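Ticket opened by: R.M.
Priority: normal
Category: complex prediction / small molecule

The reporter submitted a protein together with zinc ion and asked that the result be attached to this ticket for the collaborator who will pick it up next week. Submitted input follows.
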Amino acid sequence: MSFQSDRAGHSRRQFLANAGTVALVAGGTGTFSAAAVANPPQNPVQQAVTKVQPFDMADVTLEEGPFLHAQRMTEAYLLKLQPDRMLHNFRVNAGLEPKALVYGGWESEPEWAEINCHGHTLGHYLSACAFAYRSTGDKRFKQRIDYVAGELAACQKAANSGLVCAFPKGAALVSAHLRGEKIAGVPWYTLHKIYAGLRDATLFADSESSRAVLVRLADWGVVATRPLTDAEFEAMLATEHGGMNEIYADLYFMTGNPEYLSVAQRFSHKAIMEPLAEGRDYLDGLHANTQVPKIVGFQRVHDATGDTKYRDAAAFFWKTVARTRSFATGGHGDNEHFFAMADFSKHVFSAKGSETCCQYNMLKLTRALFLHDPRPEYADYYERTLYNGILASQDPDSGMATYFQGARPGYMKLYHTPEDSFWCCTGTGMENHVKYRDSIYFHDDGALYVNLFVPSSVRWLEKGAVLSQVTTFPEAPSTVLRWKLQRPIQLTLKLRHPRWSRTATVLVNGLEVARSTAPGSYVALTRTWTSGDRVELRLAMETSAESAPAAPDIVAFTYGPLVLAGALGREGLAPGTDIIVNERRYGSYNDAHFTAPTLAGDPQALAKGIRAGAEPLEFTIASAEGEPVRLIPYYRIAHERYATYWPVRPGRA
Ligand SMILES: [Zn+2]
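Result attached by the on-call engineer:
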């Protein structure tokens, strides 16, 4: 790694690091080139002030480990997909001849035509290619982005409209929705993915052609929604609309155009926001992934307006979902809906628990809240969901991703096919594994936060500093950090002491300098650091049992932040049956009779009785039937039956 950088380059880095979740510096010119950023305009639009800032993904490296492996699998998938096949229906809608056959599943099948999901994949694809380009510099991703943007520009030109979409009846369908007519489907949900893909392509891949398409699309949206009264707008928002409020707030930051901010506020669903802002949880029965992106948008509208209602709603939503509605894995919901937690025992064993998109969106929300309020609790949730929801969602062998991650004992993870599924979670699944670099480290003016224990390094250009992290975590509960500095510098290093570790001990150059007995905090080391200084953080991982208050006898076992799953083998499963097309059939796959082992005894005593195996992160637990059950981290489970939650009978194990 080099310290070489000019000031303009550095400013650009800051700008990009903040993109998408924090403030952007921008003027009223509608442009945000490197030059404009290096020399801020006279009247910049309001910047959101956040307490901490992320690092540009280009300044973070990932070293060998499960996260880098997952990124490589996704990169290979992105490079295999053919943009012309994803563009097929966009060209059809614009009156142009398609250049290649359309993909299957949600991209073309009639059932998905009806709910207007055709085309959502292209938006996720743009975002994923932008993150992959930003984090690796591989120009093949940039080429694909620019090609897609050029094609979308051609569609705009041919149709003489800013609207680009791939669902049938495109413009007519959106017009009917805007007129308040009853429609089948979720056109704004799908359009949000296109907007977001173009935003990410603009900000993370410097794609000027994407910016041009985005601004034309955004202006189309302004004009199209202008005739609606506020009441008509609010009524339209009863239909799922993704994070349309988020994207228009981002557009405001990117351009300074106040019309975009007005649209962002109008796209903020008041029927959801107002009770949340008052601290009322009425989420039972609501479709989960319809809500989470709106909440991400509330936080973003707060950034743009300073209106505390939006922030209060976002913070309360996070609190109630993360603290009271989440499984041990960080996921939530049954069959995509929030359920009454008093009914936990009726829902926990569903095959349709924990839609992966919800975890993707909860992590976006968590990160946005952390930037304003860097509480360890946010980082704890982030880590837990990252391992047990996100990393766990990818097939390490094929790179394909899950939709639901059910906790039905004896069930298995089901992954999408490469070309015939294209679920919502296929789309968020493309993004998940190419943005791990964005949340390992954060900083404020004088402190560097180490939130995740991942082999990696971060370059802090402003300080002339590189911090590298060598660790085999979670196999070993420790990490070693080393500074490389241009000159000695006084900085605070904030090391996360996770909630799951009773103690945290810190050694600098081999000498103990701090010992924390406050799980869920940061250990702050303020010193004048010298190049070569070595910092070691030692944590303590132990096994534990977790249950929901309404069902104390249904437990999951954890080891540090990891959920341990019973690895139950492949009995009765034909090879390859876990790569599937139709996510609606979850629950009916693999329903051949299977008797999972059971547990009996006091849950905490069972957890304490878990024995370490020969390999790291391999354990056994005694079953009620007498046979030991093999436990491994849930994220490592693939191609076999598993159990994450167990009904525990009273009595001796
Ligand atoms: Zn999904």
